[in-house]
Amino acid sequence: MTTTNMETTIIPLVTDEQKQAEETWRKSIPAQVFLNYFFAINYHIQEGDDAQGGLQHLPFFRAHQAELTDADVQAVTKLLSACWSTEYALRSTAELGDEDYLRNALHWTFPQAYHTIMAGLQAFLYTAGVRSNNPSLIRREVGRLVVRNAYPRPISFYAAGAYGDFSIHRLPLAGYKAGLHIAGKEIDAQAQIGQFLRTTRKIKAVSTRQQVQANPNTAIRSQKTGKALDKWTASHWQQITWRLGYTTIFDLLGRLRISQTSREIERFVEAEIDFKLFHQSLLNIVSYLNGIHETYVAKAIGLERYQQLVAGLPKHLQNTFVHERLQIRVEPVLRDDEPTMRMAA
Question: Whole-prediction pTM value?
Answer without folding.
Answer: 0.88
